[in-house]
Amino acid sequence: MKNEELITKLSQDDIDSMFVYKPENIKYICDFYPSSFAYLIVKDEPVLYVNSIDKEDAEELSQVEVEDVKKLSEIKDELTGNVAVEETLEFGMAQYLNDDLNALTQSAIIEDLRKTKTKDEITKIKNSIAIAENAIGEIDFTSTEKYAAATLEFDMTINGSIKPAFDTIVASGKRSSSPHSVTSMNRVETPIVVDWGAKYDHYCSDITRTFIDGERQEEIWDIVLEAQTAAIRTISPGVEISDVDKAARDVITDYGYGDYFIHSTGHGFGLDIHESPNVSMKAKGVLEENMVITAEPGIYIPGEFGVRIEDDILVKKNPKQLTTLNKKLDFLL
Fold first, then answer.
1. Same domain, 270 and 134
2. How many angstroms separate the CA atoms of 252 and 298, rounded?
3. What are the beta bridge partners of residue 40?
4. CATH number at residue 51
5. Within 13 Å and on the Cβ side, how many CA atoms surround 198?
6. What whole-number distance in Å separates Cα of residue 57 and Cα of residue 122?
């Protein structure tokens, strides 16, 4: 199905063949994620070329024909007519495919197809979310931030996660005012921002919870929750993507904290942790049914603390929150 849809899209763009190198794109088309050097050539009949290390697994799992990998200089004849490559393909690799780089067309056609998820992909994302949600109950805040992150990642691993979807963030105390703070050897203090996700069959999840203590933290947490609720209510097919960001941003601005909401409201995800669309104030286009996006507003007060709440949302006429965790979680230091 994905192969047929891709070939149809390529034909519509007057592309005769495409060289695919990014592992996530190979997984999307073939349902096999290579562990070593591999590439896919898409023509009338797509063929996956893999290293001997992956050959046995590829032949079992791939939805397209599998052959032994060849040197890139040997496959020029396979790439006929108008040839497309991914926008992320490195210059050095592209040179092996054609001496005239102007003859290669950069295309995001696979990434565009990946924006909306199939039923099978949604199931895999739900499984990834379930692993991540179950693990948060095992996090241990009695030591350092790194120790807390390790306990969380260990539980995800033993319950089916290939690896974390990204570097787990545990940022506590004043360090929580940096949205992407690097987890440290500092002892945990409040508030605690935990941003984490699992990978199930290479599909990601992405969740954030902020553990709070005290009236000031509670006040900011309540504003962030109100902003997130407003954003989620806005989500629906056909809605301008920027309107979702605006819904959250307007709430935070009305409370006087607009300058402290310093990132976009969300992003798409799937095989990559960050995919289109980017749910920001400058975003172009509209939401489409079966996109999966995050809703993650936050307030970050320098020198004090930060609060973020993040959930994973399936775009439907009535948006479906795929994450099921309580927004507010109990904890012990």
1. yes
2. 9
3. 20, 48
4. 3.40.350.10
5. 27
6. 24
- pLDDT attached to residue 333: 62
Q: Pick from 51, 80, 113: which residue ends a domain?
A: 113
Q: What share of the chain is helix, strand, coil (3-state, %, to 5)?
A: 40, 25, 40
Query: Which residue reads 């975003």 in tokens?
Result: 283
- Residues 141, 98 share a domain: no
Using CA atoms, how far residue 278 sits from 6, 55, 230, 265, 291, in Å, is 23, 36, 18, 8, 12
pLDDT of 180 above 70: yes
Per-residue tokens: 96: 């092996």
Q: What is the pLDDT of residues 183-234, one digit of tens each?
A: 999 999 999 999 999 999 999 999 999 999 999 999 999 999 999 999 999 9
For residue 214, tell me if it sits in a domain: yes
The residue type found at 74 is E
The domain that contains 214 carries what CATH number? 3.90.230.10
Q: Which of 94, 113, 132 is the last residue of a domain?
A: 113
One-letter amino acid identity for 155? Answer: D
Asked if 210 and 262 sit in the same domain, the reply is yes
Phi and psi angles of residue 239, each rounded to the nearest 5 degrees, phi first: -75, 140
Instruction: Please name the residue ranges forming H helices in 159-275.
Output: 215-234, 241-254
Amino acid at position 260, single letter: Y
Range of the domain at 215: 119-321
Distance CA 33, CA 27 (A): 5
241 is written with which tokens?
């993507």
Residues 305, 161 share a domain: yes
- Residue 49's H or E segment, with its range, is strand 47-50
Q: What is the spatial distance between Cα 256 and Cα 143, in angstroms, rounded to a whole number?
A: 35
What local confidence, expressed as pLDDT, does residue 73 receive?
A: 85
The per-residue pLDDT for 296 is: 98
User: Is 330 among the domain residues?
Assistant: no
Residue listed under structure tokens 């092996």: 96
Per-residue pLDDT at 331: 79
User: What's the number of domains the chain is made of?
Assistant: 2
